[in-house]
Amino acid sequence: MLKYIILIFAMGLVTYIPRMIPMVLLNGVKLPPRLKNFLGFIPFAALGALIFPGVLSSTGDISSAVFGLSAAIILSLAKLNVMIVVAGGIAAVYLYQFFI
Predict the structure, then answer these.
(1) Whole-structure pTM over 0.85, yes or no?
(2) How far is it between the farthest Cα atoms of the chain?
(3) What helix, strand, coil percent values describe the chain, rounded to 5?
(4) What is the pLDDT of residues 54-66, one digit of tens each?
(5) How far is Cα 4 from Cα 21, in angstroms, rounded to an integer?
(6) What one-character DSSP code corresponds to residue 83?
(7) What secondary structure letter does DSSP report for 66?
(8) Which residues, 6 or more positions from 56, have their beta carbon under 8 angstroms from its beta carbon?
Protein backbone atom coordinates (compact mmCIF):
# COMPACT_ATOMS: atom_id res chain seq x y z
CA MET A 1 0.00 0.00 0.00
CA LEU A 2 2.85 2.37 0.81
CA LYS A 3 4.36 1.93 -2.66
CA TYR A 4 1.05 3.07 -4.23
CA ILE A 5 0.97 6.18 -2.07
CA ILE A 6 4.56 6.97 -3.04
CA LEU A 7 3.71 6.32 -6.70
CA ILE A 8 0.70 8.67 -6.55
CA PHE A 9 2.80 11.35 -4.84
CA ALA A 10 5.57 10.98 -7.44
CA MET A 11 3.08 11.24 -10.32
CA GLY A 12 1.62 14.37 -8.79
CA LEU A 13 5.08 15.87 -8.41
CA VAL A 14 6.02 15.04 -12.01
CA THR A 15 2.79 16.68 -13.17
CA TYR A 16 3.20 19.74 -10.94
CA ILE A 17 6.85 20.59 -11.65
CA PRO A 18 6.47 21.39 -15.40
CA ARG A 19 3.54 23.65 -14.56
CA MET A 20 5.27 25.37 -11.67
CA ILE A 21 8.64 26.12 -13.34
CA PRO A 22 7.28 28.54 -15.99
CA MET A 23 5.16 30.32 -13.37
CA VAL A 24 8.21 30.83 -11.15
CA LEU A 25 10.71 31.70 -13.88
CA LEU A 26 8.37 33.90 -15.93
CA ASN A 27 6.75 35.69 -13.00
CA GLY A 28 6.58 39.36 -13.89
CA VAL A 29 8.09 38.84 -17.36
CA LYS A 30 6.15 40.50 -20.16
CA LEU A 31 5.99 38.12 -23.14
CA PRO A 32 5.97 39.57 -26.64
CA PRO A 33 2.44 39.62 -28.10
CA ARG A 34 3.45 37.34 -30.97
CA LEU A 35 4.80 34.66 -28.59
CA LYS A 36 1.74 35.01 -26.36
CA ASN A 37 -0.51 34.54 -29.40
CA PHE A 38 1.49 31.46 -30.47
CA LEU A 39 1.28 29.89 -27.02
CA GLY A 40 -2.48 30.42 -27.03
CA PHE A 41 -2.85 28.03 -29.98
CA ILE A 42 -0.99 25.11 -28.39
CA PRO A 43 -4.04 23.58 -26.61
CA PHE A 44 -6.04 23.57 -29.86
CA ALA A 45 -3.18 22.00 -31.82
CA ALA A 46 -2.65 19.30 -29.19
CA LEU A 47 -6.36 18.50 -29.06
CA GLY A 48 -6.53 18.27 -32.83
CA ALA A 49 -3.51 15.97 -32.95
CA LEU A 50 -5.12 13.68 -30.37
CA ILE A 51 -8.56 13.58 -32.00
CA PHE A 52 -7.73 13.46 -35.73
CA PRO A 53 -6.48 9.84 -35.97
CA GLY A 54 -9.53 8.59 -34.08
CA VAL A 55 -11.88 10.45 -36.40
CA LEU A 56 -10.51 8.70 -39.47
CA SER A 57 -10.90 5.24 -37.95
CA SER A 58 -14.19 5.82 -36.14
CA THR A 59 -16.61 4.61 -38.82
CA GLY A 60 -14.71 1.69 -40.32
CA ASP A 61 -14.94 3.39 -43.75
CA ILE A 62 -12.42 6.12 -44.51
CA SER A 63 -14.65 7.82 -47.10
CA SER A 64 -17.54 8.33 -44.68
CA ALA A 65 -15.12 9.53 -42.01
CA VAL A 66 -13.60 12.09 -44.39
CA PHE A 67 -17.11 13.21 -45.40
CA GLY A 68 -18.10 13.73 -41.76
CA LEU A 69 -14.81 15.48 -41.01
CA SER A 70 -15.36 17.80 -43.98
CA ALA A 71 -18.85 18.64 -42.77
CA ALA A 72 -17.53 19.34 -39.27
CA ILE A 73 -14.78 21.60 -40.65
CA ILE A 74 -17.28 23.56 -42.73
CA LEU A 75 -19.60 23.98 -39.75
CA SER A 76 -16.74 25.06 -37.52
CA LEU A 77 -15.58 27.62 -40.08
CA ALA A 78 -19.09 29.08 -39.86
CA LYS A 79 -18.30 29.66 -36.14
CA LEU A 80 -21.19 27.54 -34.91
CA ASN A 81 -21.51 26.06 -31.43
CA VAL A 82 -19.29 23.02 -30.85
CA MET A 83 -22.35 20.83 -30.18
CA ILE A 84 -23.77 21.76 -33.58
CA VAL A 85 -20.42 20.99 -35.22
CA VAL A 86 -20.26 17.55 -33.59
CA ALA A 87 -23.91 16.75 -34.33
CA GLY A 88 -23.46 17.95 -37.91
CA GLY A 89 -20.43 15.73 -38.42
CA ILE A 90 -22.28 12.72 -37.02
CA ALA A 91 -25.34 13.47 -39.17
CA ALA A 92 -23.15 13.82 -42.26
CA VAL A 93 -21.58 10.40 -41.64
CA TYR A 94 -25.00 8.85 -41.06
CA LEU A 95 -26.45 10.38 -44.24
CA TYR A 96 -23.39 9.37 -46.26
CA GLN A 97 -23.63 5.77 -45.12
CA PHE A 98 -27.40 5.73 -45.61
CA PHE A 99 -27.30 7.00 -49.20
CA ILE A 100 -24.03 5.50 -50.43
Answers:
(1) no
(2) 59
(3) 80, 0, 20
(4) 888 888 889 999 9
(5) 26
(6) H
(7) H
(8) 62, 65, 66, 69
